[in-house]
Amino acid sequence: MRRWGEKPYYSFNYYLQQTFGCKVYKVALNAGMSCPNRDGKIGTGGCIFCSAGGSGDFAGDQKCTITEQIEQGITGTSKFHANAYVAYFQAYTNTYASVKRLRAIFTEAIQHPKVAAISIATRPDCLDEEKIELLAELNQVKPVWIELGLQTIWEETAFYIRRGYKLSCFEDACSQLRKKGLTVIVHVILGLPNETKEQMLATIHYLNHQDIQGIKLQLLHVLKGTDLALDYEAGNFQVLEEEEYVSLVVDCIERISPEIVIHRLTGDGPKDLLIAPLWSTRKMQVLNEIHHELKIRNTWQGRILEV
Ligand code: SF4
Q: Alpha-carbon distance 30 to 272, whole Å?
């Protein structure tokens, strides 16, 4: 069986160890951005699942400078004994600002001596030529990763979740970023309302054929204060059961191209906001079950590569 270190898939930790040769940890930052899907440029309600914190509920305090947030993140994770850090611009849309402002915040992060790379969560419709030039320039200093929240390839689902851009927009942004040598990581949500297992696996299959370097698999969380919560409470859809999710994630791992780093296999929503599924708060248990299922199936990433 093919292995990447101890795991039968190309894990993020393995990638970090191979790339930087030391223990690397992520610090999540809040640069005080907004989002065009919230401020009225594209929409006002945001993506249907997005919390008031702009999907950055674990990020730093936007009242602090980027350097202060990095320092706080380093202190808060000192028990993990990391030697270097990825500065993760997580909350809201992190390229939705002027190039001047983006240059200032990203440069501040990159110049921190303990930062090995920066990772920027954004939307593909917020990446124009000038911004991509800036990112490419910074990528010459330290690695710059761009995280795109695609979630699904299905336009009906994209419409339901109010993603606010077409698949072709994602493809264009991906291609522009890759032309400039930037690393692209794609977020996928598993368990979106009305999507079948076959549709979710089709999203994985599609991504195998795109020039992407990383993928984050995320379980759909229903959070307080979102329109998704209203739909859930009205009984319009059900969330995945734990066994269903574990089986589905392993189905995905079997299909993800072995060249693509798997950055995340699940996620734990903020406990004070999480409505469902509550089992997801036991993150370590879920990860153990995924690894157990991988063992039972005697499987590895890239085993089932559809052409
Ligand atoms: S694009 Fe991101 S920040 Fe904006 S509403 Fe959607 S999930 Fe939230």
A: 19
Tell me the torsion sign for CA atoms 134, 136, 137, 142.
positive
Q: Tell me the pTM.
A: 0.97
pLDDT of residue 267: 79
Give the integer Cα–Cα distance in Å for 234 and 237: 8
DSSP state of 45: S
CA–centroid distance, residue 91 to ligand 1 (Å): 9
pLDDT tens readout for residues 206-262:
999 999 999 999 999 999 999 999 999 999 999 999 999 999 999 999 999 999 999
Is there a domain that residue 307 lies in?
no
H or E element, residue 80 = none
Domain count, the chain: 1
Say whether pLDDT at 280 is over 80: yes
Token readout for 142 is 């330290």
User: Helices in the chain by DSSP H: which ranges?
Assistant: 12-20, 66-76, 99-111, 129-139, 155-160, 167-179, 197-208, 227-233, 242-255, 283-297
Q: How far is the CA of 114 from the centre of ligand 1 (A)?
A: 29
Whether 92 lines ligand 1, by a CB cut-off of 6 Å, is yes
**Parallel/antiparallel/unpaired status of strands 214-219 and 183-190:** parallel
Whether 1 maps to a domain, the answer reads no
**Residue 11, SS3?**
strand
Answer whether 123 contacts ligand 1 (Cβ < 6 A): yes
Q: For the domain that residue 160 is a member of, what is the CATH number?
A: 3.20.20.70
Asked whether residue 259 is assigned to any structural domain, the reply reads yes
CA 134 to ligand 1 center in whole angstroms: 22
Strand-pair partners of 93: none
Distance 34 CA to ligand 1 centre (A): 9
